C-alpha cells in the first residue's frame, strides 16, 4: 500500500542529509524526522500557480521533492515519508487531523495527515509535514505526553476523545490540531488533495503558504506576512514588500523555482 519497494531510499537520505543508521527503531525514526523537517519545507506553490493537479503517486512526489529539491504540502510529504518508513520496515498507519492553528476552529475539515508508528509496544505521532509549527521529533502518542527541548510540545485529550497536539510557546500553548487515530488510506488522501487544490474555502489555493522548521529558527510565510519563531522568544511578524516576497522562497525556504514560475508568482503577488 505504501510502495516502500519503489522508493529511492539512497536519494531520499541524501536529500535530507541523513547519515545515521537505518533500522526500524526509535533512533532512526527520530533522526529521519529531524532531518526531514530541516531539509524539506511546506510548499503550496503548485496550487497557487494554477497547476491543474498536484499528483500524489510516489513517482511524481519523488521527482518533485527528492530530485527537483522542492517542498510539498502535507499530503505529498506523507506519501514520501510513508514509503521511506515502509522500505525500512516500520509498522504504521495514517490518520487525519483538524487544524486549529490560525483558525481556532475545532470543527473544520480534517485536511492534515500524519502517521502513527508502532514500536516496541508504544505508539508515536510522526508528523513531518505540519510546517513551522510542527514537532521536530516524534512524540509518544499517549495521554499527557510531552516533548521538551528548545521546541516543546504536548498532547492533551479532550472530553470528546480527540487528542490535541499543542506547541508550547512563551506566550502560551498554541493548539495545532485535534485528531483521532482512525485509519486513513492513500485513497482518502486523493479526496483531501482535491479539496485543497480546488475548493473555494481551501486555505492553500489562493495565497502563498511556505513553512520551514530548522534547529534554531522557524519561518511561516502566509501571503506576504512573514512570521519568525525562535526558541524561548515571542514570535515576530512583519509584512514583506513585493520584491522580498518574491525572493523569499529561495532565500528563506530554500526553494529554487524556474524562471517561468517566478514570473507567475510575481503576477499573483501583484494581483492577489
From TrEMBL:
Annotated SUPFAM superfamilies:
Cysteine proteinases
Which InterPro entries does the record cross-reference, listed alphabetically?
A: Arylamine_N-AcTrfase, Papain-like_cys_pep_sf
Gene Ontology MF terms in the entry: acetyltransferase activity
Family matches, as Pfam families? Acetyltransf_2
Annotated family: Belongs to the arylamine N-acetyltransferase family.
Protein name stated in the entry: Arylamine N-acetyltransferase
Source organism per entry reads: Saccharothrix espanaensis (strain ATCC 51144 / DSM 44229 / JCM 9112 / NBRC 15066 / NRRL 15764)
Amino acid at each position: 500500500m505504501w510502495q516502500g519497494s519503489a522508493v529511492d531510499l539512497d536519494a531520499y537520505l541524501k536529500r535530507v542529509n541523513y547519515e545515521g543508521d537505518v533500522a526500524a527503531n526509535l533512533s532512526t525514526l527520530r533522526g529521519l524526522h529531524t532531518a526531514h523537517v530541516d531539509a524539506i519545507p511546506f510548499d503550496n506553490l503548485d496550487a497557487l500557480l494554477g497547476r491543474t493537479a498536484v499528483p500524489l503517486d510516489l513517482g511524481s512526489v519523488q521527482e518533485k521533492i527528492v530530485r527537483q529539491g522542492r517542498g510539498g504540502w502535507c499530503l505529498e510529504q506523507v506519501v514520501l515519508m510513508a514509503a521511506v518508513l515502509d522500505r525500512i520496515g516500520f509498522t504504521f498507519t495514517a490518520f487525519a487531523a483538524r487544524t486549529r492553528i490560525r483558525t481556532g476552529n475545532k470543527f473544520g475539515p480534517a485536511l492534515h495527515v500524519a502517521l502513527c508508528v508502532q514500536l516496541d509496544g508504544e505508539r508515536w505521532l510522526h508528523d513531518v509535514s505540519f510546517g513551522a509549527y510542527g514537532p521536530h521529533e516524534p512524540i509518544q502518542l499517549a495521554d499527557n505526553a510531552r516533548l521538551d527541548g528548545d521546541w516543546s510540545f504536548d498532547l492533551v485529550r479532550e472530553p470528546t476523545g480527540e487528542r490535541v497536539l499543542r506547541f508550547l510557546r512563551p506566550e502560551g500553548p498554541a493548539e495545532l490540531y485535534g485528531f483521532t487515530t482512525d485509519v486513513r488510506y492513500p485513497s482518502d488522501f486523493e479526496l483531501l488533495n482535491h479539496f485543497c487544490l480546488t475548493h473555494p474555502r481551501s486555505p492553500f489555493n489562493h495565497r502563498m503558504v511556505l513553512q520551514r522548521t530548522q534547529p534554531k529558527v522557524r519561518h511561516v510565510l502566509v501571503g506576504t506576512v512573514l512570521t519568525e519563531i525562535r526558541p524561548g522568544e515571542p514570535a515576530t511578524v512583519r509584512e514583506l514588500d513585493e520584491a522580498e516576497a518574491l525572493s523569499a522562497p529561495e532565500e528563506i525556504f530554500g526553494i529554487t523555482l524556474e524562471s517561468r514560475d517566478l514570473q507567475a508568482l510575481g503576477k499573483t503577488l501583484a494581483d492577489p
